[in-house]
Design brief:
58% of the residues lie in helices and 0% in strands. The protein is mostly helical and 69 residues long. The protein has one domain.
Length: 69
Amino acid sequence: MHMLHAGINLIYIRDFLGHSELATTEIYARANSEMKLKALKKINNTVIPENVPNWQENKYLMDWLSKLC
């Protein structure tokens, strides 16, 4: 996991560990939240907006939610 978190490609980790199949290495590889966020930012900067709107300031939404309770 430390190698994966350091940014080393999973294929190289597979070779280092001596696994014959990448699927075997994937069993042990788990991305943490930081890695997932970095991957999302790499594919598209607009996936995660810089300024997330405050949903509590949306009167229509708050009225609708209060009717559900």
